[in-house]
Amino acid sequence: MRAVSTPPPLTAEPPSLPKHSGPPTIVSSLDLDSLEPGTRHNLHLDLFRDPAGQQLRIPVLVVKGAEPGPVLGITAAIHGNELNGIPAVHRFVHGLDPKRLRGTVVGISVVNIPGFLLRRRGFSDARDLNRLFPGKTGGTDSQLVIMRLREQFLTHVNYLVDLHTAGPGRTNPVYARVDLEDPASVELGIAARPDLIVNKPASPKTLRGAARALGIPCVTLELGAPQVLQPEIVLRATKGLRRIARHLEMLSRPLGLGGRPPLCNESSWVYSEHGGLLEVFPDLLARVRKGQPIAHIVNLFGEIVGEYKAPFKAIVIGKTADPVAPIGTRIVHLGKLVPWDE
Q1: Which of 247, 273, 295 is the last residue of a domain?
Q2: Residue 218 burial (CB count, 10 A)
């Protein structure tokens, strides 16, 4: 009998990235005007000195185009365990040709260095950096970092893309969080071509809210799950950044926005009222009807102790992937879909 051969599994192509070219330039401030047009730079930006006297420096990748134009800022890993944005920044920035770029791209690949090294969301003092804007003079370490980030980075950009993932134990599709009252931010979200757009006015304590207070259009892109690298999502994020640059006419072939992704005008989480082993039924981006079963929780004897149904007709924006669920666990993030003309 003739054996049937099994095709080898597909493997991802390695990204085109440069070889190490020496140490970055250490700077205490971001002076974009001093950089020559048509050049790229790896910078280590000093933010503050920790209690042991060590400087905390963050990696800043700058490409200054040969032609004048807007400054596009990109941030990743303000939560230290949200990793998919890091290679997206690398691949987008290294894929730019300074000689053919209009304007300047400033990418921070890892905002939260202590959290990144500790594999956790918060800073060295465990505080959430994205809840501390605009920072505070004479405050805690995390407040000082945020104050310096705002002064030394945020005030230098004209547009901002903030890259995130879901929180610990959860997962998201690729979606954009915007404020529908800010048309320029909505256009950034559409240009990135996400799976959907969620209307969520930003808290002033977040990076997106701080940008809004300065009049800087900003979109948050949610990119999958934390503490992993997901190649397909990294590729989509990289392409999304390039599309945003084209939309801003920083690259040749300006982008026509064309079709718009599904829009949620509001969203909310369903929380568990019981503890146990959680099973969530719908997939990400599934459409669910009001009253449809979406999850149950069983005890350690395999008996159902909690059943959960969709409180309204919705699309699944996010879900918990960790089956060990204490009381109060976020189960499913549901969004209400609306037409764009509403």
Answers
A1: 247
A2: 29
pLDDT in tens, 40-61: 999 999 998 877 888 999 999 9
- Tell me the residue type at 103: G
- CA dist 25 and 175 (Å) reads 35
**Based on the structure, what is the number of domains in the chain?**
2
Identify residue 188 by its one-letter amino acid code: L
Calpha distance 46→93 (Å, rounded): 21
CA distances from 46 to 104, 111, 125, 164, 269 (A): 21, 12, 19, 23, 38
Check which CATH number belongs to the domain holding 309 and give it. 2.40.50.100
Alpha helices in 183-335 (DSSP H): 183-191, 207-213, 231-247
Mean pLDDT per block of 10 residues along the chain (342 residues) reads: 51 76 94 97 92 90 98 98 98 97 98 97 96 94 96 98 97 98 97 97 97 98 98 97 97 83 97 97 98 98 98 98 97 97 70
Q: Is residue 84 one of the residues assigned to a domain?
A: yes
Express each pLDDT in 296-307 by its tens digit: 999 999 999 999
Are 102 and 222 found together in one domain? yes
What range does the domain containing 307 cover? 265-338
Q: Which of 52, 58, 170, 51 is nearest to 114 (CA)?
A: 58
